[in-house]
Specification:
This protein is 6% helix and 46% strand. With 254 residues, it is mainly beta. It has two domains: 2-139, Jelly Rolls (Sandwich), CATH 2.60.120.260; 153-252, no CATH class. Strands 1, 11, 14, 15, 16, 17 and 18 form a seven-stranded antiparallel sheet that branches. Strands 2, 4, 5, 6, 7, 8 and 10 form a seven-stranded antiparallel sheet that branches.
Length: 254
Amino acid sequence: MRFLWRNLADDGALSTNSEISTLPVANVQTPQLAERFYAAAGVTGVYIQVDLGSSLAVDLVAVLATTLTSASTWRIRASDIDYTTGDLYDSGTVATGISASSYPTAQAVLPSTVTARYWRVFVSDTSVDQIQIGRLVMGPAYQPSRGPRLGYSIGWVDAAGRGVSRGGQIYVDPRYLRRRVTVQVRGVTEIEAIDSLLELGRVAGTRSDVYAVLQESGSHVLEYSLWGLLDDGLVVTEEEYAVYSARLAITERL
């Protein structure tokens, strides 16, 4: 389980090899995933390069709301020298792991923290007419020292409107579906509660996005990962002497 609430890519200097001028790579830094970066039509391999300005710690990299398919691959490189050296980290070319259009996300939890200034994320897919990416996420990701309390939940929230006519018929105004997760982190120390959980609540509040990864392995990783906003302010509770917990409810951004 991981939580990321400081997206370093948002403050980085971006460059790419292909973009449409009206839908530039800078769109991956905007809050709404629907405001996408578009590569030029027919370009099957696209990179996003990020200069973080200084060497910063990164645990997780993800591209969200993308048109990439199950046939896609990607490669992540990091260095303090340039974008292509990859001396500090090089994933090699690997499958993105995207398996369904309902979860158009590629994510990589790095084997260990990588501290670097220059990052290059290259994606390739010959099966799509145009590569699009809604968000680039990278940064430090908090991993609780203890697993979550059993009973965490994930489900779909339907924003459809419903009305009843005078004759009793129900009419539906179809809208969007989005996921919502609720999880309780328990049994952590005071230092962890203050430095990580309470800090998450301070930085994110209910106005800044959080990326949650509930499962890091298995065949349904993407179903248990989402980018969204906390429904309520995060509150840390001392359940017993020097033992702390916090409840997080996150609703997905679209």
